[in-house]
Backbone:
């Protein structure tokens, strides 16, 4: 496979006295240090050229004291690097600092590789490029290339010359995310063996998320340590339909579920954000915005005719006939308060029972006055007044 970016350099083959300065490119996750810096020149063999080309490269120089060094922030077992071999006599030795056995594998380019040696260049012309994978059986944080031959030298490009990993402990929990209510998310390090530590002390390679928060994992494999975190949020619950509804016969009820940036689908495939209801039934809606939301509304249609008729006399004489003051007719009333007064305006009885059921207590026969405040099924409020005669 090829690097998405490659770095090349060429140099004239006129030998000059080397100047051994050191230059460093600081990159994301690593840095490159070389003996000296040089502009980039196009490789002579088009089969050994991979674009885009860098503006400048680091160079080992002409003498065998020259070097290129990659310093990596996080220990790796495998790193992909691009080099340019200046001519057919250049050979370099690659070592790592992890104490393991270093090997290189050619990915692309016109160069020989063997063990931990790279070079010479074998393409057309005097110089060209190679992409290699440098690996070790132990993690490392440094790759050093030393020039073995006192000829033209070997180059390494700017920050695009390296692909880190795959590391035994490198992992990615993903980007911060927002979940729908009730959804779960499994965070997976995708590392089979190692030491795992999550923010709450959990020590498994995976973590089940059921609520909003910041989640952090630390993974250690041998000497390789990696840390990653992710923030998980939840969209708020949508309480569109709060309760079942009563409507009166002949009335219409317009049910509106309008929410921002949403589409709607009702049980009869209509797609408006509102629905007009005029009869009993169960109505269902699906609302699509960030999260699909389903709800149903049960509607009961009733006769809302209001009737209230109270007697003007009752006879609490224990003959089981007309013993209590109670409505002759009552219909369509959901709440009622009754107050009864004597002829001097003193309150003698009060009840919230719609049936009243007043037996007169120990009051004497005579005329008593009442007021009734009641509410019908539509929520309308009324007040009525009258009188009743106690005749024992």
Residues:
């Amino acid at each position: 496979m090829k690097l998405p970016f490659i770095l090349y350099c060429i140099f004239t083959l006129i030998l000059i006295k080397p100047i051994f300065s050191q230059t460093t490119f600081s990159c994301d996750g690593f840095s490159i240090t070389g003996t000296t810096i040089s502009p980039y020149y196009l490789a002579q063999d088009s089969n050994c050229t991979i674009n885009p080309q860098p503006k400048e490269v680091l160079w080992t120089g002409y003498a065998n004291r020259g070097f290129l060094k990659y310093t990596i922030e996080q220990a790796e077992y495998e790193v992909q690097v691009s080099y340019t071999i200046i001519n057919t006599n250049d050979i370099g030795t690659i070592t790592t600092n992890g104490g393991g056995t270093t090997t290189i594998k050619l990915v692309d380019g016109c160069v020989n590789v063997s063990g931990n040696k790279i070079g010479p260049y074998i393409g057309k012309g005097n110089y060209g490029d190679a992409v290699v994978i440098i690996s070790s059986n132990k993690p490392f944080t440094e790759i050093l290339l030393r020039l073995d031959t006192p000829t033209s030298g070997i180059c390494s490009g700017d920050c695009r010359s390296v692909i880190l990993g795959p590391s035994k402990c490198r992992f990615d929990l993903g980007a911060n995310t927002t979940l729908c209510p009730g959804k779960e998310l499994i965070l997976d390090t995708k590392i089979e063996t190692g030491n795992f530590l999550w923010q709450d002390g959990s020590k498994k390679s995976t973590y089940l998320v059921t609520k909003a928060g910041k989640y952090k994992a630390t993974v250690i494999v041998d000497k390789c340590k990696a840390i990653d975190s992710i923030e998980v949020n939840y969209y708020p619950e949508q309480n569109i339909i709060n309760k079942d509804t009563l409507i009166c016969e002949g009335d219409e009820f317009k049910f509106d579920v309008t929410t921002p940036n949403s589409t709607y689908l009702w049980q009869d495939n209509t797609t408006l954000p509102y629905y007009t209801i005029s009869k009993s039934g169960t109505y269902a809606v699906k609302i699509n915005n960030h999260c699909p939301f389903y709800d149903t509304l049960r509607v009961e249609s009733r006769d809302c005719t209001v009737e209230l008729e109270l007697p003007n006399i009752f006879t609490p004489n224990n003959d089981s006939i007309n013993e209590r003051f109670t409505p002759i007719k009552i219909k369509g009333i959901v709440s009622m308060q009754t107050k009864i007064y004597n002829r001097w305006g003193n309150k003698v009885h009060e009840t919230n029972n719609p049936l009243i059921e007043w037996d007169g207590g120990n009051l004497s026969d005579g005329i008593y006055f009442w007021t009734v405040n009641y509410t019908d099924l539509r929520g309308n409020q009324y007040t009525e007044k009258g009188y009743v005669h106690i005749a024992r």
